[in-house]
Amino acid sequence: LSGRAALPFIDNIDPEELDLLLVSHFHLDHCGALPWFLNKTNFKGRCYMTHATKAIYKWLLADCIRVSNVSAEEMLYTEAELNASMSHIETINFHQEIEVNGIKFWCYHAGHVLGAAMFMIEIAGVKILYTGDFSRQEDRHLMAAEVPNLRPDVLVTEATYGVHVHEPREQRENRFTRLVHDIVTRGGRCLIPVFALGRAQELLLILDEYWASHPELHDFPIYYASSLAKKCMSVYQTYIDAMNDRIRKQSAVSNPFKFKHIASLKTIDDFDDIGPCVVLASPGMMQSGLSRELFECWCTDRRNGVIIAGYCVEGTLAKMILSEPEEITTMGGQRLPLKCSVDYISFSAHTDCNQTTDFIRELRPPHVILVHGESTEMNRLRLHLIRKFEDDPECKLLVYTPKNTQSVELRFRGEKTAKVVGQLAAEKPVEGNILSGILVRRNFKLHMMAPEDLQNFTTLTRSTVTQHLGIPFTAAPRSLVLNLSQVAGELEQVGDKQKPGIRVFGAINIFLENKMIVLEWESSPVNDVYADAVVTVILKTESGDCPGNTDTPIQVNKKHVRTCIQETLEEMYGASMVSVSEDQQQLTVTVDEKKAIVDLESYEVKCDDEEIQSMIEVTVKHMSACIQPLKLTPSIA
Amino acid sequence: LQVITGAYDEGALAYLLQTDDFRFLLDCGWDENFSLDIIEQYKRHIKTIDAVLITYPDIYHLGALPYLVGHCGLKCPVYATIPVNKMGQMFMYDLHQSRSHSEDFTLFTLDHVDAAFNLFVELKYDQSFPLEGNGQGLTITPLPAGHMIGGAIWKISKEGEEEIVYAVDYNHKKERHLNSSNLTKISRPTLLITDALNTKYSQGQRKTKDAQLLTTILETMRRDGNVLICVDTAGRVLELALLLEQLWRNEQSGLFAYSLALLNNFSHQVIEFARSQVEWMADKIVRQFEESRANPFQLRYVKLCHNLSDLEKVRAPKVVLASQPDLECGFARDLFIQWAENDKNSIILTTRTSPGTLARELIDKPNVTTIEVEVRRKVPLEGAELEEHLEQQRIQNEKKAAEAQAEKKKSRKSSRSTGDERMDVGTGMEDEDENDDDDDDDDDDDDDDDENQINNKSKSSTGDHTIDTGLADDNLFVTPLHTPSGTRAPTQSPFAPKRKAFAMFPHKEEKYTCDDYGEIINPADYMVVETKPSIANDFASMNFGDSDERQPLNELFANNSNVSNMVLTMMQQNSVGILPANQAQQHPLIQQVQHQPSTIPFKTLREKRELKINAKVLYVDFEARSDRESIEKLLNQIKPKNLILIHGTQDCIEQLEKYCTAKQIVQGRIFSPRVGEIVDATTERNLYQIKLKDSLLSSISFAKTRDVDVAWVDGVITHGAPPPTTPSGLATFTTVGQSNTEWYLNPVAREVKDQMPPHPCVFVNEPKLLDLKMILIRQHGLRAEFVGGVLTCEDTVAIKRNEAGKIILEGSLSDTYYKVRRILYDQYAIL
Predict the structure, then answer these.
(1) What span, in angstroms and rounded, lies between the C-alpha atoms of B740 and B336?
(2) Domain spanning A466-543 has what CATH number?
(3) Which residue among B766, B811, B813 places its CB closest to the CB of A535?
(4) The predicted structure's pLDDT at residue A542
(5) What superfamily would CATH give domain A4-164+364-400?
(6) Min CA distance, B75 vs chain A (Å)?
(7) Under an 8 A CB cutoff, do B276 and A240 touch?
(8) SS in 3 state form for A494-522?
(9) Which of A247, B86, B249, B463 is most buried by a 10 A CB count?
(10) Rounded distance, CA A484 to CA A510, Å?
């Protein structure tokens, strides 16, 4: 697969909806389409990777563009686009917390390769750990993947090696160095096809150290033949702080990536093939390029040896020679006998079954999503994990193995916690109390506070809007006052002598200034409605067609109300059941031989039977409310 | 908060901050003169400190750590960024070496420095680090501060609500190698602790400063003089090195022909560390590295020198960046004494160090022509003094030998073997060295202090030679080459015997033995003879001692039966100028002698000299600290609720205090404590957590303003048991009383709600009239313009803001009025 066909299934998502793009490390299967994605889609989010990843990313992809032999149309992106993508990429340091649109994320060391990161993403309190490729085994220059001290709710992890278990590190290093030692001392040339970055540096460190402690080997040169590795060596020399303690201590004395016994080869032409030597050459699976050329030169000699150090894909020469065939086919089509020794030592820095299990045991995430691996291996790992944790009461594990484009939906019951601060929190919470205040939601965090505290705890400010509305008015002020009092009930006098005014609804001030009425009030939904009412009254008065255009305001008289109540009650319960006391202050209702007394001053109802009491209460209340003018509690802005 | 040092002055910084039961020490500075008064202040609190936060790697911010760890038993973790840790180590090593070059320096040893730095916990910028134990619930976060690499502003936050920010000496401007501080990101911290040092000061433009530096250098170079630039060890020096490197690279500057050197005891390491800390530097540098792999500290023109003899090899005229910036000790002082009297030379000071130091004096009195300088040198004891000393030692030795012969053998064996190993390996020596030292200590247990020290020193210094000679081959032939005979010999000789010098605490140095430059050699040794007559005379006068001094030295070796004749002859034959050769010859012997009690003891000679300053002394500010204008601007943005002002002269603090009061920046209180004074900035804090039931949440509709959603909530409080499994890490703390119940907020029942009085209306947000105008015009196509500060719209509606900040909407009854009102309301979240 190459070109467009090798892209991930991006059609299934809308890049525009993405907020954030996190790149775990610089391997092609993790960042290969990035320049295309950043330049040629409508992605508008932000993209993060670690410093080391970004530094290597550029050189690695530039190298890819150079060696890929697809035609220009098929190429996903050009070098110019790659360079343009650099400015879109932001860097993040390990452990540094960054917040984008309320999504908080930070990264941990992942082992695997220089700059590899595991991202912990926190959205509204739900934590998701994406491991990318990781390794829990410390090696010569990288630290083991850290175990976060927080428990993630979802773990997205790789299943590349499935249930496979790696050889212990010492053992495989010993085997490797012994093998190299044997090959060169028997007079052979040792070819180690490797991917230019990542494991190659680890192997170089091993070899450099081995050579340093074995002076007898100093005559045999070691080469690494990759211009890419050479270019990126300065990155390795610089980002020491992303490596393990051993390297960091050592770098205080001298930089471990300034090798003493290893030289770099530019091309095969610079190489004098005169005797035993060790060559690390890319590509790692010997599809083409330098490692293939050297292999074809050397495979016919019995003394020579090839050590395959990494993962090989089906169908490549590296995978093929592992089955030790008699003959191989060269790139030119010739057939050559395969006589040199072929060995396989896995230096892969991917997590294996045991590491993954331990990792999960320490994190105890409720959900595990396996990605990156062949489906059979992945399912085996899933079964293994479920079996491992089925007896563990502490850890109820749900494992998912989604296929490509299949989405896993997890629901988290959002029990939102708000912090109550300021005045509101001055009193301790008491069962049954009512709490009222402003709830402020910012980046998925909730705070509750009194309006007065808004300024103290947030960047928000409270403000007030005062409105002054002018209305031309030529009618008699007196009729206006009358009309207003019909609508609004009581009127208050406000203002001073120069500027007398009235206040209605306890909120709106009305002033009359030569043929113009000015309404003044503080905005709030309720006051606005009042103001509208006042405006209507004014306009009606002005046009003279106000229905209540009489000189007498409604005189609410108690007697009238009393009569009304009495009549109503008589209709409800029968006239004989209702009697009025002598001083006209009380009204007695007899229902089912129970007496209810209604106080006509305060409209209170007293009765032994609650049901009757509430019934009469409601009636009385409604009656009085109907007849009497509004008594408003003014809304305070 | 209690001030230990650094209030109402300009010296070291150290503050004790207590939040609840947890006590932070904010910075741990010491002054150049190592005043023990400060230590006394520290000692009182040392037991109670739970954590130390360090901002910058220089002496003012971490100087006292080695002493406190070494002598006072400070054991708590020290938090700092990675560069602060690394560079801080460089600072302290260099300081120690600079001091012990010229005198007995016994306040702390390199061991103490190591011990102190072992306590460090390295953090990254923006990394939230939750504390444990007493500090449960507290999180510390370093934020970039500029000024020096790795420099930090510390944010201490409690349960995500209270924030205490400790920001000193930050730099608001971007520099060549560092980003500016992002103090602006902090908003409304509960308490801001900041310095007022620069409130009477203006930083000036970078361009002009650069130009000033360039012209001075050019002028001096052209008249064949040398330039001494006094810088620190590993902080600001990076900026200057980078600047000069760029100047040199620039072909038009015409500096290409001259030489440029960086001189301090650890220049090589400093630059090496700087190279590996690219990710801590300015964005531009990071980008440059990512795109072209060009590490800015791959210095092409700056030659790294470790001692004056290295410097000697650099062709004059030259520009030298030397430490220490205060001119109190170190190579800068040596060079200053040498160069100050020559009017061709220039001396550029880059920082205002604390008052009383030589450098400060030069800055404050720019026109001073003579200055009294104390010249400190280490000289071997001689004559009667020496004999007395030897006698003492002999007696002691015998005693010791009798007492602990067996032990001694053992120790000797071990130390010898370590000595051998040193030559091969050269790394990972620390452990063995410590053993070595321990042995010494055991032996000397009963000795009196004085003796002990000398003993230790001599032994270890011999160890020193073994390594140096192994690696410093360069010195062997190069030095004589560069020695113009004649004048040379007399000049050196007075220093030479001293030089042999046993002067340092060498086991530390072994760590660095692998570098190409080798041993530290007495600065004065290899002085170039371009020196001015006055100094030559001076030296000459000191010279008379020469032969006398050497004589006893030889005698001494003769006394020491272990030293063979061969060495003696060697010694005599070799002029002292080729000292390294001497050492090379000696070293096998010295190894044997290692634990012999005698070598030359030292005393410090102090001598006052009037120094005529003829050289041009210039102060160019490369301090990179915020100045008044920016401090005020920042304070305005940050608006802390409470403010503590520290570090700065009385005037400065008062001025800043006045400013803050005038502008009403601080809601709460402003403190400016004196040394030792305790201020209580506790704020009444009401906080509890409450869980919102889903049913409540679904009934709320949020109104959006800017990036925040707000809503009015009425709810009934109930409490219930915590959920059966409390996931760790999830916020489960409850601040109010009960730890086992959680409070829930439920929706209010309908009936109850009807009875509640309606809540007051709240308008949230504060729209700007200008924005409003744009909205009116762009989105609604209304005519709107400002007339005398009032926004008028369609000539009928006016919107203005009165003094109290209230918005007033005025207009006559019309459609426009209501339209505008609706638009205005849209700017608010109305609850």
Answers:
(1) 69
(2) 3.30.310
(3) B813
(4) 75
(5) Ribonuclease Z/Hydroxyacylglutathione hydrolase-like (3.60.15.10)
(6) 22
(7) yes
(8) ECCCCCCEEEECCCEEEEEECCEEEEEEE
(9) B86
(10) 11
Q: What CA–CA distance (Å, rounded) separates B190 from B637?
A: 14
Q: Please, which residues have CB within 8 angstroms of residue A482's CB and are 6 or more apart in sequence? A: A548, A550, A551, A553
Task: Dig out the tokens for A551 from the structure.
Answer: 């000189």
Rounded-to-integer distance, Cα B283 and Cα A90, Å: 10
- Whether residue B738 is preceded by a cis peptide bond, meaning omega within 30 degrees of 0, is no
What mean pLDDT comes out for the span A303-311?
86
Give backbone dihedrals phi and psi of B720, rounded to 5 degrees, phi first.
-140, 170
Question: Residue B603: its pLDDT value, please?
Answer: 65
Place of tokens 């808004």: A454
pLDDT at position A117: 92
**Which chain B residues are within 8 Å of A417, Cβ to Cβ?**
689-692, 731
The torsion angles phi and psi of B645, rounded to 5 degrees, stand at: -105, 135
pLDDT value of position A555: 53
- Average pLDDT of the segment spanning A550-576: 69
First to last CA, chain B: 40
- The verdict on a CB contact (< 8 Å) between A463 and B763 is yes
For residue B237 the two structure tokens come to 């020096």
- DSSP letters, A423-480, are GGGGSPP-TT-EEEEEEEEETTEEEEE-GGGHHHHSS--EE-EEEEEEEE--S-HHHH
Residue range B662-683: mean pLDDT, rounded: 74
Cα–Cα–Cα angle for B143, B147, B152, rounded to 5 degrees: 20
| Cβ-based neighbours of B549, under 8 Å, separated by 6 or more | B379, B380, B382, B494, B497
Chain B residues in contact with A509 (beta carbon < 8 A): none
Q: Closest Cα of chain B to A169: distance in Å? A: 23
Say what the pLDDT of residue A156 is.
92
CATH class of A169-344: alpha beta
Across the interface, whether the CB atoms of A441 and B708 are under 8 A apart is answered yes
Q: Tens digit of pLDDT for each residue in A137-163?
A: 888 888 888 898 888 889 999 888 888
Which residue matches tokens 């009928």? B796
CATH topology of domain B206-381+603-619: Rossmann fold (3.40.50)
* pTM to 2 decimal places: 0.70
* Cβ distance of A435 and B714 shorter than 8 Å: yes
Residue spans of the domains in chain A: they are: 4-164+364-400, 169-344, 418-457, 466-543, 558-627
Taking one residue from A and the other from B, the number of pairs with CB-CB distance under 8 angstroms is 280
Tell me the domain boundaries of chain B. Answer: 2-201+621-678, 206-381+603-619, 688-718+742-759, 763-830
pLDDT of A191-216, one tens digit each? 998 888 888 888 999 999 999 999 88
Span between the terminal Cα atoms of chain A, in Å: 68
Cβ distance B718 to A251 less than 8 Å, yes or no, reads no
**Is the bond leading into B317 cis (omega within 30 degrees of zero)?**
yes
Q: Residue for token digits 């590795």?
A: A229
DSSP string, B553-613: HHHHHHHSTTS-HHHHHHHHHS-GGGHHHHHHHHHHHHHHHTTSS-S--EEEEEEEEEEE-
Cis peptide before A283 (omega within 30 of 0): yes
Nearest-Cα residue of chain B relative to residue A436 = B714
Q: Which residues have C-beta within 8 Å of that of residue A134, sequence separation ≥ 6?
A: A110, A111, A112, A116, A118, A145, A157, A158, A350, A351
Is B2-201+621-678 CATH 3.60.15.10? Answer: yes
β partners of residue B747: B715
Assess whether A560 carries a catalytic annotation.
no
**CB nearest A426 (choices: B686, B714, B743):** B686
**Is the model's pLDDT at B550 over the cut of 70?**
no
Cα–Cα distance, B808 to B797 (Å, whole number): 10
Pairing relationship of beta strands B162-167 and B152-158 according to DSSP bridges: antiparallel
The type of residue at A453 is D
